[in-house]
Every structure is written in structure tokens, then in C-alpha cells.
């Protein structure tokens, strides 16, 4: 079978990585690239840098990767859907829910694979965690807490920390919990003089009762990417920056010191750090997209899921605007 002919639009900070990964993915050929701003990272190689999505489509594509700024997601994706091109759009799916719904509906109506680039689902630590939770190793899941903190990334210009970073946590929390959000409450802050928020704290509840907490900002002088899932049997801790997963098991040895036993609630047990096969998440993501197009498996993040995540993101922003009031979904 011939390789999929893939086009890439957007050659910026994310697009340059997608160009490399598409070239490295078996069964895919990068045949065209486009960016009206040019190729500042020099990733086009022998390919001509085309000016827009229409020029990209004329190259004759089976699939496309959209890595343009969020405000251009809808018009770019709709053009590709109309042309019959399977497409993955970098997160979030669009600038707002209404735009996202139009995009998702266009791909569904055309019978095309539409995917959203939530790469955290392809992180080795989170993949292993979810597999072990599904196998019952944690028992009932009680709470999911995430921290996503770092300095401000110069690549961001059109959205705040909620739509850029917290959207990852919203998607992964729903994915790990196996449930949609029921309600959220949030507070944001604007500490760096930019138009958009640069800090957010979120608390929420899933429809299946799992509690959620997210701490996200662009004002921390180190990179912190941590997901903690607490349940009946203990807690999984994933360091997604390094792809490490550790399990802190509840102890089975009774504590004879009554004051400590009453304070701790559960006892400390074995700590296991798992040895994982650490593949680059972006490569796994691209393979999932390829396999969805080929009908092999459906492990990609669908556009319907992308819209649901955007609904939660907008609820977070609405709650923050309303002083942290609870917003139901």
C-alpha cells in the first residue's frame, strides 16, 4: 500500500516538530508544507514553502497536520474537510466552542478522520498509568490532581494559559477518569502585564464523582509536569516531563501508634517506580492518527472530544470571570 501523502500547515514552534515526526513515521510521506510567515526554523528541506491552505490542498493530500495559531484553526480545518483531507488539528480544536462544533461536524459529515493533538495522552507515564488503573491496580479512583508550571513560552501570542496549557489537563483528567466534567470552579490572575491570564487554579468534579484539581501557570522559574491520581489502593504519580511513573501503595502493616494512625488515615506501603519504554509522545500521536485513517485502531483524540474539552475550558474562564462561582456543564 502506498504511503499517505501528508501536508503540514504552520511551521512554527510546534510545526517544526511535526515536520520531523511525519518524516520519521512509517507509512507517511511529508509532501507539502505551508506557512504565510515562511520557514524560520528551516524545516521545509527540499519542499517549497507554500503560502496558504489552498496551495497545500493542490499538492494532492491524503492527510494534513494543522499547526497554525488557534484563531486560524477553523478556517484551515474547514478548507481541508471540504477538500476531503483527513486532518489532525493542534489543541485546542478551535478558538471557541461554536467554531469547534462547526469543525467537528464538517469532518463527521464528510466521513473523514478528524483528530485533535492532545499529546499528553501519548505520554508513556500516563499511558502506563491508565493501563494499570484499567486493570484495577488502584481500585476506585478518588481524585486527580495536576501541576503544569513553567516560565512563559515566547511562542504563545493569541491565548492565555487556560487555552494553551490547562486544556491539556482538562483532556487528560477526563481521559484518566473515564468521565466528562460535571462542574468546575476557577480563579485566574494576570501578573505579567499581558492581555491574557497567566495563572489559573481549577477545582472540579467529574460526572462519576472523581474530584479534580489543576494548578497551571507561566510564572514558575522551573518546569513542573506532574499528575497524581489517588484511589482506594494508593496513588500513582506521573512526572510527564520525564515520562516517569511511581506507585505509592497503601500499607498493609497496622500502625500501633494510635495518634499517628488517626492523623494519617492510611499507612505508608511499598513504593514502586516502573521501568517504561519511553517513546516520544509526538511520534505515538502521529502513529495513532495514521492508524485511524487506515482503520487499524481508534486511539486518536476525536474532534468530538476536542469540543467537549473546549466546553470545559470556557466554563473555567467563565467561572474565573464570575469570581470563582461554580459552573455546571
Instruction: Compute the average pLDDT.
Output: 94
CATH topology heading of the largest domain: Dihydrodipicolinate Reductase, domain 2
- What is the C-alpha radius of gyration, as a whole number of Å? 21 Å
Number of contiguous helices: 9
- In quaternary terms, these chains amount to single chain
CATH-scheme architecture of the largest domain: 2-Layer Sandwich
**Which CATH class of the largest domain is shown?**
Alpha Beta
Q: Supply the CATH superfamily name of the largest domain.
A: Dihydrodipicolinate Reductase, domain 2
Keyword list:
single chain, 329 residues, Dihydrodipicolinate Reductase, domain 2, 9-stranded mixed β-sheet, 6-stranded parallel β-sheet, 27% strand, globular
Amino acid at each position: 500500500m502506498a504511503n499517505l501523502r501528508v501536508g503540514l500547515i504552520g511551521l512554527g514552534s510546534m510545526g517544526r516538530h511535526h515536520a520531523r515526526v511525519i518524516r520519521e513515521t512509517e507509512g507517511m510521506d511529508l509532501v507539502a508544507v505551508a506557512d504565510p510567515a515562511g520557514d524560520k526554523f528551516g524545516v521545509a528541506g527540499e519542499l517549497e514553502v507554500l503560502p496558504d491552505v489552498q496551495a497545500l490542498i493542490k499538492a494532492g493530500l491524503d492527510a494534513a497536520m494543522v499547526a497554525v495559531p488557534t484563531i486560524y484553526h477553523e478556517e484551515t480545518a474547514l478548507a481541508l474537510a471540504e477538500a476531503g483531507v483527513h486532518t489532525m488539528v493542534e489543541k485546542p480544536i478551535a478558538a471557541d466552542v461554536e467554531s469547534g462544533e462547526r469543525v467537528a461536524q464538517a469532518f463527521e459529515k464528510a466521513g473523514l478522520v478528524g483528530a485533535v493533538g492532545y499529546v499528553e495522552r501519548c505520554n508513556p507515564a500516563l499511558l502506563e498509568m491508565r493501563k494499570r488503573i484499567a486493570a484495577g491496580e488502584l481500585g476506585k479512583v478518588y481524585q486527580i490532581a495536576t501541576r503544569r508550571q513553567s516560565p512563559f513560552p515566547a511562542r504563545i501570542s493569541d491565548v492565555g494559559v487556560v487555552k494553551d496549557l490547562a486544556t491539556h489537563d482538562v483532556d487528560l483528567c477526563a481521559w484518566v477518569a473515564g468521565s466528562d466534567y460535571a462542574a468546575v470552579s476557577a480563579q485566574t490572575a494576570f501578573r505579567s502585564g499581558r492581555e491574557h491570564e497567566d495563572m489559573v487554579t481549577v477545582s472540579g468534579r467529574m460526572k462519576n464523582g472523581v474530584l479534580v484539581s489543576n494548578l497551571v501557570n507561566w510564572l514558575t522559574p522551573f518546569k513542573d509536569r506532574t499528575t497524581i491520581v489517588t484511589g482506594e489502593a494508593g496513588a500513582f504519580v506521573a512526572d510527564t516531563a520525564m515520562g516517569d511513573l511511581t506507585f505509592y501503595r497503601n500499607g498493609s502493616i497496622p500502625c500501633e501508634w494510635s495518634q499517628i494512625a488517626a492523623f494519617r488515615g492510611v499507612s505508608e506501603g511499598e513504593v514502586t517506580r516502573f521501568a517504561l519504554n519511553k517513546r516520544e509522545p509526538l511520534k505515538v500521536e502521529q502513529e495513532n492518527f495514521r492508524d485511524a485513517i487506515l482503520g487499524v485502531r481508534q486511539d486518536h483524540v476525536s474532534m468530538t472530544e476536542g469540543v467537549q474539552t473546549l466546553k470545559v475550558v470556557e466554563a473555567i474562564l467563565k467561572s474565573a470571570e464570575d469570581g470563582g462561582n461554580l459552573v455546571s456543564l
